[in-house]
Design goal:
Chain lengths: 250, 250
DNA sequence: CGGCCCATTGAGGTACTTCAACCAGAGTGG
DNA sequence: CCACTCTGGTTGAAGTACCTCAATGGGCCG
């Protein structure tokens, strides 16, 4: 039995001190709107490896990820699985207007969700434009990310795929640590090799081999299996195959 | 020089008789809201093969596709390209709040757009919830479609990819023809082999070979290069690798 | 007719998968 | 304490699905 989750005080109902206050679906809310949200919200936690919900199952809340990492994935009958979303802190889970989950959701680390009961939340979308606006913005961002990922899946080599994933994680890490200018040079991978493979449409063997190759070539430095140093971020970007100077979507 | 586009009377500013009235971003609008939209809208047409806009270029309108087919695609420096969106009639083009195009947009058939100047449209999103709500719904649908496509790109075989694409086109065709129950058994492919390859992350040779294989196996019947008959739709669905009886996303 | 575009087909190469062995660390139980 | 097992990861050898390169064909247009 793992230790209890320490990070968040689950009784702290105070949105003002919430770590994802300015990035989540509630980012645009005024004080009175937050108050309304606080009435319909509650926290749930999941241990690393636990399922949050299976595709097709009833899901009568939507939620913001407060801490931890969860994945959305699809599985075919014969077991092939593809990850289709990576939920990091501040990301939104669930679809207003739909009462069942479309994808398998799994906590890959210990996860805390800030849940909103579906019906009241849908009502709020209709009544408070600030929530609807932010949700639209976040959904458009996710759509952009999904399209970026389609290029990775459809056209990049295994090596480029790995480099792309590392770059994305590093960027999000930097964003979270409010480390805007300098990109992180050391980070903890939130995903196992298997999850990385599911994300990239590869096998775990190929993931492992390409990570080893990037290490051999000095693009990354491993400390243990999960901690990665990136000595030269531009060098890593070069390996992604992306246009370097082009308008980066952060 | 191709013939002039015959389908739409460009002076017909009447939203009421618009073919995409109940599916486009304006679907939820009341009479007075439509009137407002009519003041900021104008039509543009593009010939088959013409670019609508390049990624990074200024795009000071958003639009609904009224007729024809356009594609969104991304191209890497070395020329590899991946299609990331297929815009059919009623689909929405552009992102409110962003003044430059994120992707290359190309008309693959003759296309008519119903354009809205960006600024007034953004203002309308803020002021008329019906537009914002519909846009959110459409964006969520697109996100679902993108995620479905990530499974195709990441995990399906070439044969399954082709079958999936044919099934998707057939379903959208049926939806457009208001042919809800029976799926279409004959349809015109709106895409060249090259576009199909770009969509599926394949080469045109592989596309061609797999289409030939499906024809040899009796899954499809070709009439010329672009017209496809589907004798048994369930047979085709079987070839996609998808869960047959599972909740279909129409 | 020749030229062009799109599509098909073949032959050979290669990047990734598959199958299998092996390794390191952590937990378990004698 | 050591043997054990389990999980996540690495590495090797062989197989294969798809790509690359190249030739061919059919429809359309000047």
């Amino acid at each position: 039995m793992p230790a209890l989750l320490p990070e968040i005080d689950l009784d702290a109902r105070d949105c003002q001190s919430c770590p994802i206050r300015h990035r989540a679906v509630c980012a645009r809310c005024e004080a009175d709107e937050l108050e309304h949200l606080e009435q319909i919200k509650y926290y749930r936690t999941y241990e690393a490896g636990q399922p949050v919900v299976w595709a097709g199952d009833k899901l009568d809340f939507v939620a913001s990820v407060v801490s931890g990492v969860a994945t959305l994935s699809q599985t075919m009958e014969d077991g092939r699985t593809q990850m289709v979303g990576l939920l990091l802190p501040s990301d939104f889970l669930g679809r207003p207007g739909r009462s069942t989950a479309s994808y398998d959701v799994t906590a890959v680390s210990n996860v805390t969700l800030c849940c909103f009961r579906r019906k009241p939340f849908e009502e709020m979308i209709r009544s408070t434009p600030h929530v609807a606006q932010r949700l639209l913005e976040m959904t458009l961002d996710e759509l952009d990310a999904a399209r970026e990922w389609m290029l990775v899946l459809g056209r990049k080599t295994a090596r480029e795929k790995i480099a792309s994933l590392l770059a994305i994680i590093a960027r999000r890490e930097a964003l979270l640590n409010l480390d805007p200018g300098r990109s992180v040079t050391r980070m903890e991978l939130p995903l196992t090799r298997e999850s990385m493979a599911d994300y990239l449409g590869l096998t775990i063997e190929t993931v492992s081999r390409q990570i080893s190759a990037l290490r051999r070539d000095g693009v990354i430095v491993l400390e243990g299996k999960r901690t990665v140093q990136i000595p030269d971020f531009d060098r890593l970007l070069n390996e992604t195959g992306d246009d370097m100077d082009g308008g980066v979507l952060i």
